[in-house]
Write the structure tokens for this entry.
Amino acid sequence: MRDHFLHDAFDRGLIILGCGTSAVRVIPALNIEKPLVDEALHIMDAALTAAERASGML
């Protein structure tokens, strides 16, 4: 599920790093602006929903 999440987020324009077997790292720049944070959270939400659907959790 984690890999599906990472690939889907990447396809949507967000790079997230995998960590271990089931965790992710989110490492934004210290000077990131709020609109970019909002966009990243929107992408993460959509990618997580897609990963849940693909794994049968939804």
Observations:
- The first helix runs from residue 2 to 11.
- The two ends are 12 Å apart (CA to CA).
- The chain is about 55% helix and 10% strand.
